[in-house]
Amino acid sequence: MRRVLEILGSSLNLTWQEFKSHKIRTLLSLTGVAFGIFCIISVLATVDSLEYQVQKDIKSLGTNTVYIDKWVYAGGPDYPWWRYVKRPSPTYEEMQLVKLKVPAASSVAFNISSNSYVGYEDDVINNVNYYGITDEFVNIQPIEIELGRYLQPVDYDFAANVVVMGYTIAETLFGKAEKALGKPIVLKSGKRAQVVGIIKKQGKSFVNAWEYDNSLIMPLGFMKEMMREKNSNPVIMVQGKETVPMEQLRDDLTGAMRSIRKLKPTQEDDFALNDIDAFSSFASEIFGGINKGGWAIAILSLVVGMFGVANIMFVTVRERTPQIGLKKAIGAKRSVILTEFLLESAFLCIMGGLMGLTIVFLLTLASKAIFGFAVFIAPNILILAISICIIVGVMAGIIPASIAARMDPVVAIRSK
To answer: What percent of the chain has pLDDT over 70?
Structure first.
């Protein structure tokens, strides 16, 4: 153990001496390694952080949840919208029948949505999301209340004219969110409602899911007084029991909906089952592809950096040839010489890696302002970066180190 520590200390000291003696040459040679590590860490950290935010937003749609709609939640230039536009929209009555026919479901909710204005005295805010919901919506979509209360069973039973307001709307309309509680507001068609609760501030959403900060949540019956159900994007939300696989839930829902709509065996489904878990897997595949692109750029940079470090090591071996001969003459083994140069090469690459990490770390401090979300460097990414530096260092130094280890001590001592 003591011998190993001596070799480590010697290699580290030699690396530092090399850096002090040839600062410009060393820095230029390490630029490739630094850029390669910068590419790897920046891409992995940014993609991981972005994926975390997107997956968080997707999970906000509900875990183990299926959305029954007339539309398939997919996009692209080949989206066959003409196949779905004539389908019947889900209805509240169908939602009630799904509850009875699908025992695998733990919660079933009905939701309609629209976009309109909200006003208080002389102030008006446009483009506000309206959500009219049933009582089990909160089981699928847990909503944190910052102030006041959430909707109560009696609110649903009597279609009470009460709303739960998004934090941003409350701040914009009343100056301070707490001032909104108990206030009467004006909604679409001049309908009046009372604010009974304020939703906890959510922040920016990358998948544009619910945007609760800019939303009003109200009982379904009350919202139907302002707009027609079938023109308000009706959706049946079904969350499966924890012990029920998603495939079974989808099969049960398919059978139930076909039965409810009395479809013949030869008729195709006139509804869509949108699996939220499938969105999560799809997003993971996309981010996996982005990571591969980042790795391709990084590997190219690391190869360039590896040749730069190898060049330093060849020059170093040539400059230290007399010292190598003297060490071998007094008993240093080939393995010791080989290890010293390999460690020195690895330390040089680690220095380049630390340069790249420093740049990435500085960028993470400003990431919120630049990207709109915080970028974090996970511990496994740091371990990966150091491991790559060591591997690149060993690969860059293996040939020069082998040359040094095989030198004849007499010839090496006589060299100039």
So the answer is: 78
Tens-digit pLDDT profile for residues 200-214: 988 766 555 678 899
Non-local (6+) Cβ contacts of 185 within 8 A are 118, 119, 120, 163, 165, 173, 192, 193, 194, 195
Q: How far apart are CA 294 and CA 303, in angstroms?
A: 14
Q: 182 is in which domain, residue-wise?
A: 88-270
- The sign of the dihedral angle between the CA atoms of 377, 380, 384, 386 is positive
> CB-based contacts of 27: which residues, under 8 Å, 6+ apart?
none
State which of 270, 304, 330 marks the end of a domain. 270
| CB contact at 8 A, 155 and 223 | no
Could you please report the per-residue DSSP string of 36-54? Answer: HHHHHHHHHHHHHHHHHHH
Region 296-323: mean pLDDT is 74
* Residue 131 · residue 114 · CB < 8 Å: no
Highest mean pLDDT among 69-73, 87-91, 204-208, 330-334: 87-91
Kindly state whether residues 122 and 212 are assigned to the same domain: yes
Closest to 349 (Cα-Cα) out of 404, 397, 315, 384? 397
pTM as predicted? 0.65
Instruction: Answer whether residue 74 is part of any domain.
Output: no
Domain count, the chain: 2
> 220, 236, 270 — which closes off a domain?
270
CA distance 262 to 378: 52
| Residue 172 and residue 230 in one domain | yes
Helix, strand, or coil (residue 218)? strand
| Residue 117 sits in the same domain as residue 183 | yes
